[in-house]
């Protein structure tokens, strides 16, 4: 009895000691462990798909949910509830319209240009049920870029929302010449070249099309094309496979989401965050989502209370806009427990908690086309993700030294890249392999090749270049630092500097332009700025430049600032030098060269004065 009691005491003491050591030296052990178990569990499910060649896709899961919980609200939009069964049957009608027309077959690509509305989802699902791949078009892109998108994904059919049909007026002749049939989500149209969808859906059957049409035998088969701005100028069609769609759909679940959650989606559906993570994640849980046509900071919390929202999606801008709203009583009176998104600044993060309660903010990192994802499952403020020993075994990534002046990774005498030390900032590279494949872009192979880095550490290895500068601290938290190359983010959108440069080059008085992003205090991302040389014999015209960018560029891509120069600084490899321009910003008291500001009131680029500069910095002048 004495021996047993002593043994028990020793055992308790031993367990307590282990617990103390774990808490002190491995404080995140159990959270990491359970998160990793979820990752492995979901990965095993995908491996089973590979082995038996029977893939249960996101749309298959949706159909299963519609059979299991037909009367549960799947979608709430502008006060109207749409059940799983309703969306399922309506998407069947879309599929049957095109099936009866006989113009679409399995494997075809269809372009979708629609704003946030229930029929975006119905058309998307209906086309997927026919075995088609769907290309989501950014509703902000202009005619030149829009035509380019069709060439990328090979779409010969376009479905356009009723509110966006007029935006196609100037390119409809070009679409006809390219034999692209246009379908408007309307009952009738005055344009003979545009077919209407709603009237035909009213007559179509709600019976499901043959399941064999949507059946997928490979996780690597393309299901979507999502356009992303990159370093090549015009938008690129990132190939979204069933594997990527399924991984994205697991996001809410990995963070602890459940079927009782109500997800608020204020982001545009043409973005992977809203469509793949938001809609896909809602389906995976069997939950309900509230779709907003367009984000409204003033309506956000009222919507959350009205619909009993528990999870919301965000980008950094969303949270900043909410914090900038006037304070009101009852700001913490809501049921929101979790926010899922990316790009949340530390100062905004803290203020958000102070204003609206200790909502768990779940940052994640991953580009639309990328082969790597980080998730900050711990919730540490300022981190975009977390890694550990086991994660690194599954997903090979590295941070390498980057020369900001030369705008390229540092290579040693042997021609290989160098790792940064723990805590230092480096370029994030992700190794391409069986567990982290890279599917690239539709169209030219050159687009895909430009995102690859070869012979990084040994001859023959291949890495995906994220274009992001990151740092990993002593506790394995990953922090985003900056973007490199020819892309920056503004208003939650990627801006391709080469695309903007090409558009500016069409202005007669511009000899050369160099586009980059500059930091503006109090704003997320970087605002567009263009250094330019005026052609000999011409004069700078702020009015002409304003009219040109207004017509040819979406609002987020328009340079807010212009800097006139006599000559352009170049790198040793004859690339335009951006580093010093970015560093010097747009302060007229420091820069002696002429500076101009995009003024929508004056409808012109006007001289950037010290007074105007102070108004921008103080926030009196909203950008």
From TrEMBL:
Domain of life, per lineage: Eukaryota
Molecular-function annotations in GO: long-chain fatty acid transmembrane transporter activity; long-chain fatty acid-CoA ligase activity; nucleotide binding
Gene Ontology cellular-component terms listed: endoplasmic reticulum membrane; plasma membrane
Gene3D superfamilies: 3.30.300.30, N-terminal domain of ligase-like
PROSITE patterns (alphabetical): AMP_BINDING
EC code: 6.2.1.3
Assigned keywords, A-Z: Cell membrane, Fatty acid metabolism, Ligase, Lipid metabolism, Lipid transport, Membrane, Nucleotide-binding, Signal, Transmembrane, Transmembrane helix, Transport
AMP-dependent synthetase/ligase domain segment(s): 63-384
BP-aspect Gene Ontology terms: long-chain fatty acid import into cell
Region forming the signal peptide: 1-17
Entry-linked InterPro entries: AMP-bd_C, AMP-bd_C_sf, AMP-binding_CS, AMP-dep_synth/lig_dom, ANL_N_sf
Annotated membrane topology: Multi-pass membrane protein
Enzyme class, first EC level, given as a word: ligase
Subcellular localization: Cell membrane
Ranges where the AMP-binding enzyme C-terminal domain occurs: 499-575
Catalyzed reactions: a very long-chain fatty acid + ATP + CoA = a very long-chain fatty acyl-CoA + AMP + diphosphate; tetracosanoate + ATP + CoA = tetracosanoyl-CoA + AMP + diphosphate; a long-chain fatty acid + ATP + CoA = a long-chain fatty acyl-CoA + AMP + diphosphate
Pfam families assigned to the protein according to its UniProt record, in alphabetical order: AMP-binding, AMP-binding_C
Family under the similarity heading: Belongs to the ATP-dependent AMP-binding enzyme family.
Protein name, entry field: long-chain-fatty-acid--CoA ligase
């Amino acid at each position: 009895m004495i021996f047993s009691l002593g043994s028990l005491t020793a055992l308790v003491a031993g367990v307590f000691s282990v617990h103390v050591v774990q808490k002190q030296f491995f404080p995140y052990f159990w959270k990491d462990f359970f998160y990793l178990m979820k990752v492995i569990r979901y990965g095993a499910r995908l491996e089973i798909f590979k082995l038996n060649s029977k893939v249960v896709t996101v749309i298959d899961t949706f159909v299963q949910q519609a059979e299991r919980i037909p009367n549960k609200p799947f979608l709430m939009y502008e006060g109207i509830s749409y059940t799983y069964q309703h969306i399922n049957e309506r998407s069947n009608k879309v599929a049957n319209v095109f099936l009866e027309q006989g113009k679409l077959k399995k494997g075809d690509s269809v372009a979708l240009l629609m704003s946030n509305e229930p029929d975006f989802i119905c058309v998307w699902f209906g086309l997927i049920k026919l075995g088609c791949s769907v290309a989501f078009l950014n509703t902000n892109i202009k005619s030149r870029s829009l035509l380019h998108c069709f060439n990328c994904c090979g779409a010969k059919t376009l479905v356009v929302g009723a509110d966006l049909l007029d935006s196609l007026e100037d390119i409809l002749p070009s679409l006809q010449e390219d034999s692209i049939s246009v379908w408007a989500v309307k009952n009738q149209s005055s344009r003979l070249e545009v077919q209407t969808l709603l009237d035909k859906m009213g007559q179509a059957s709600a019976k499901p099309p043959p399941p064999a049409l949507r059946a997928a035998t490979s996780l690597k088969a393309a299901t979507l094309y999502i356009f992303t701005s990159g370093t090549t100028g015009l938008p690129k069609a990132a190939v979204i496979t069933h594997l990527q769609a399924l991984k994205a759909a697991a996001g809410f679940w990995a963070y602890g989401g459940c079927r009782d959650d109500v997800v608020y989606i204020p982001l545009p559906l043409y973005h992977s965050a809203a469509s793949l993570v938001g809609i896909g994640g809602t389906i995976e849980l069997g939950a309900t989502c509230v779709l907003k046509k367009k984000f409204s900071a003033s309506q956000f919390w009222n919507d959350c209370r009205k619909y009993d929202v528990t999870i919301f999606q965000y980008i950094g801008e969303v949270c900043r806009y909410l914090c900038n709203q006037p304070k009101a009583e009852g700001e913490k009176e809501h049921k929101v427990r979790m926010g899922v998104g990316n790009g949340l600044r530390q100062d905004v993060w803290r203020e958000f908690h102070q204003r609206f309660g200790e909502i768990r903010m779940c940052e994640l990192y991953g580009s639309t086309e990328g082969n790597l994802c980080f998730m900050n499952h711990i919730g540490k403020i300022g981190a975009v993700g977390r890694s550990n020993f086991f994660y690194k075994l599954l997903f090979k990534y590295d941070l390498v030294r980057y020369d900001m002046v030369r705008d390229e990774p540092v290579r040693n005498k042997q021609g290989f890249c160098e790792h940064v030390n723990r805590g230092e900032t480096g370029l994030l590279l992700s190794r391409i392999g069986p567990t982290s494949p890279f599917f690239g872009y539709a169209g030219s192979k050159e687009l895909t090749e430009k995102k690859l880095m070869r012979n990084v550490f040994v001859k023959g290895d291949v890495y995906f270049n994220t274009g992001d500068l990151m740092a990993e601290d002593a506790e394995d938290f990953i922090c985003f630092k900056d973007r490199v190359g020819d892309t920056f983010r503004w208003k939650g959108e990627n801006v391709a500097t080469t695309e903007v440069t090409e558009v500016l080059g069409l202005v007669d008085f511009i000899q050369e332009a160099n586009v980059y992003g500059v930091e503006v205090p109090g704003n997320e991302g970087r605002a567009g700025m263009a250094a330019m040389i005026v052609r000999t014999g011409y004069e700078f015209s702020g009015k002409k430049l304003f009219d040109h960018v207004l017509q040819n560029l979406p609002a987020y891509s328009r340079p807010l600032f212009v800097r006139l120069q006599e000559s352009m600084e170049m790198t040793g490899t004859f690339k335009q030098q951006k580093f010093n321009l970015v560093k010097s910003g747009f302060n007229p008291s420091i820069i002696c060269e002429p500076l101009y500001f995009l003024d929508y009131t004056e409808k012109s680029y006007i001289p950037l004065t010290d007074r105007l500069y102070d108004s921008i910095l103080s926030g009196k002048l909203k950008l």
